[in-house]
């Protein structure tokens, strides 16, 4: 199908043509295509006019994985395994397959229960999600609107924590850029994570071992899946204050399978 056809197909199944705007999503898409033995050229949701490129949602391209320095030469963009998943521009009327992903906008769920940061992470995993990533003002405003009429009795864990040198988002270790601190930026980056305050939902740091009454989870996200040994996988999980998934029931296995399977 051509580019427009690929875009329409993804929308017809409630998804979006892939937006690979960081190395984590790029690697996740690569791993998915390898696991499904897909070697064909695959459309992504990037279009270019001259040297100026933007994603379908209007965001200007600021991270790229072009094969050659003279790209882009055409209006639309594909990638494929034979070229190490680097990007190449193609005519939009060419026919390739689509890579669809869940919409970038997640669903949020507020959990109540006395949890520390690690326990809060596990509670979100148990419903097939993760701690909320609020890395732009649109997401933050949306959460504030959704929580407006709810009874908030204490701070709310979100998915931001200190890795020793900086604050990073738990999903892909993405360093924080957009922030909503209630006073000044915290100077401590070890053993702390971030909560939204009860009073106005601004952010402050707390010890990861502290317990608070609320946890904000998000679902519908593209997980990062990299090929590695169990020991390496465990080490990567621990960097993000997580543990490898424990699937004790068939229902938990189905949740994991649904999270990992993105339709072609």
From TrEMBL:
Instruction: Report domain C-type lectin positions.
Output: 1-101, 116-205
Under the heading CDD domains, the entry gives: CLECT
The UniProt entry, under Pfam families, shows: Lectin_C (PF00059)
The record's section on SMART domains has:
CLECT
Q: Which InterPro entries match?
A: C-type_lectin-like (IPR001304), C-type_lectin-like/link_sf (IPR016186), CTDL_fold (IPR016187)
Which SUPFAM superfamilies does the entry mention? Answer: C-type lectin-like
Protein name from the UniProt record:
MRC
